[in-house]
Amino acid sequence: MSVQPFAIQMKSPRFAIIELFGGDNNLSSYVDTDLNEMLDGLPGDGLVIALTDHFGSAAKVLELSRGRLRTLEDWGEIDTGDPAVLTAFLTRALASVPAEVPVAIGFWDHGSGVFDEADPAADIVARGRAVTPRRRALRQRPRRRLFWGSRPADQQIRAMLHDDTNGGLLTTLEAGKVLTGSLAAAGRTKVEMVFSDTCLNGMVEVLAEFDTVARVITASEDLEPGDGWDYHRWLGGLAAGPVDGLRLGQSAVAAFEQSYFSRPELFPCTLGAFTASGAIVSAFKSLVAAAQPLSEAGFIALDTARRRSQSFDIKDSYDLIDFAQNLASIAQDMALRSAAGLLEQATTAARVAHCALGPSVARSRGLAFWFPSSRGEWFNTSATYSALHFDRTTGWARYLRQFL
Q1: What domains lie within the chain, and their CATH numbers?
Q2: Which of 76, 117, 134, 344 could form a disulfide with 171 if both were Cys (CB 3.0 to 4.6 A apart)?
Q3: Gene3D superfamilies from the entry (predicted)?
């Protein structure tokens, strides 16, 4: 079955950004702010295809190219948490771009990493230019804390692409399947980068879920400031020359750091870009295997390293490199110490770029992981966590269950 591409005007761009704007919630007004930044920063040979949803208005498919914004299609009311809708958009967007053109796919919304991603409707599937740009804005919006729906029943639902009109959301597991299915339907194997302009998705578990569909994964370990990514700086940094996943990630991190460096009132700010190889997952699996025969003594060493490591907004999220370094320094068992060193090496080798601004994230190294500090925290997350590729490969949640 052939895929119908969108009727874009930019037929042969040097690179393309495809972004999903989940704005049918309390971030609605800021969709246009970031579209404005994109228009201002996008080089003349760059292309953006965006699916935008606002609270109280119809969803649209937009083309941004050559300094203009065009509405390609009006989709009416949609649920941005519906994988079928997202897959349909991504498949057609990918089919609209020549196969040789490097592509980055982005998620825009609130985010919660991999914590308690319960979705009752889980579905796993194979502008106006009057908006004030960030650089001229006098006031900044709040940090992108988790968005809670207006109905009490929604208050324990966390993920991204929240749709307040329809109640939908997209979990990490669903997102991975959406990306895999879209690429397959469009006849592609990978894109250059998958990025999250959201909070807390800079986690090894998210990287592992996306590692078959992208060469580089870019996201924040911590909460993002309310302004999110600086698209003007990022896209402006791609003004000439070849574009690949490494350059996309490096440029995004540099733009993010430059945007917030002189605004300490918005700290902490973190962003990390990592190559999507299986080396980190393999090294973490070896760490679990080294700790297992040590029984409680092994867990005590891991938990001591956890308590000494850099944590983030959801306090059971810890920097992976900092943790590995702490574990290597305290582990008495040689095998466990060696496994910690190899985990640090694998994670550092995969890192493309990272930034960490503010004293509260001074030991951030770009990529976090889940380590529950209590039995209650384990129960809150383990049910959804166990379905992720990272846990199915490493057995991390099963290992923790023995001691929590």
Answers
A1: 15-275 (3.40.50.11970), 279-350+358-401 (no CATH)
A2: 117
A3: 3.40.50.11970
